[in-house]
Amino acid sequence: xxxxxxxxxxxxxxxxxxxxxxxxxxxxxxxxxxxxxxxxxxxxxxxxxxxxxxxxxxxxxxxxxxxxxxxxxxxxxxxxxxxxxxxxxxxxxxxxxxxxxxxxxxxxxxxxxxxxxxxxxxxxxxxxxxxxxxxxxxxxxxxxxxxxxxxxxxxxxxxxxxxxxxxxxxxxxxxxxxxxxxxxxxxxxxxxxxxxxxxxxxxxxxxxxxxxxxxxxxxxxxxxxxxxxxxxxxxxxxxxxxxxxxxxxxxxxxxxxxxxxxxxxxxxxxxxxxxxxxxxxxxxxxxxxxxxxxxxxxxxxxxxxxxxxxxxxxxxxxxxxxxxxxxxxxxxxxxxxxxxxxxxxxxxxxxxxxxxxxxxxxxxxxxxxxxxxxxxxxxxxxxxxxxxxxxxxxxxxxxxxxxxxxxxxxxxxxxxxxxxxxxxxxxxxxxxxxxxxxxxxxxxx
Length: 445
Ligand code: GAL
Description:
It is a single chain. The protein has a single domain (about 5-440), classed as TIM Barrel. It is about 40% helix and about 15% strand. It has an eight-stranded parallel barrel with strand order 1-2-3-4-5-7-10-13, surrounded by six helices. It has a three-stranded mixed sheet with strand order 6-8-9, covered by helices on one side. A two-stranded antiparallel sheet has the order 11-12. By secondary structure, the protein is of the alpha/beta class. Beta-D-galactopyranose binds near residues 222 and 296.
């Protein structure tokens, strides 16, 4: 497999996110985010880590962008920290925050890296969370203002936009299971949060379309093939429920198909009663130029009456003796291929981009080298899967690696390293891993 097999126009990118990379959490007027407060709660983040320093992209963006360029990438995807430009989430604008992203964008353009801006990568301003966050009726108003400020400030320079990063991820982990910020739990938080996220993804698209000429607008979805543990009916139904929640809940309303449905899933009825406007499908729709998909693992699921609502639970890769990463996530490139095909088969998506893909393996820096052969193999297998889908006619137009440097991996803290570049967090020294060198070679091929 060579880069040229993917064709001339295929986009090769690398992705970071504000709260995971920037650090400088309290610098030049930045407001608190839900991750600053959540990470202070005992036991929420491994080793008590907080995102306050991260890998200091805020001060080292020139070095990091140069590294991205040197590895051969052409696209740089990053997110805007809402509270850096609007410290309270609404109201006054922080000029120095606005300037920071101008500098990042200008540096990208100088280096010949095409910027892709993610508007929301999970770092809600803390002050908005105090008012209800993603559960609030005002969320759409706050989000619209944030999107407008970004479009007005950066729209003349940046044409590629991503409205949300993985709505399933931040709503389920943050507003249902309580394991991500802001740590809320239960259906009373979850239902309004998913509904507001579904509205925000479409509304954000409309705002960018209106304010940015020639914009190329997308949004991203996590996706995981869900397989039943056995061919028992109960397991098959459990897998269908999990599949609906993980893969269908946000994309189908967006594509005009309304709220998805499977049999024997009483929670769906509750969801409909709670969020009556699921029925008003127009506001949930937007004709995106591309859809970003992010596939990190496949799931095997069995019926489990002890799990509320879903009545389904994962049978871990480890216990099934199939390959997995150090996150415990099943490695299964063939299932990534099938998810790409499945999204494409919806029929009304113009283009797909793989807007993230990557893996955590424990790295060892020895004599200036990180020999991360497993990560290289991971990328090779997953790129083969993308190529296979492309050869079968799927319009998949790019692959963005997650991630440039080791960074703050949410509730896993700093020990879960996904970077192509190793970071010593005590000195902020960067060392290109062998996977980074592999990408450099591949992107020349
Ligand atoms: C994604 C998320 C990224 C990154 C990655 C690896 O779901 O968008 O921010 O953390 O997972 O776990």
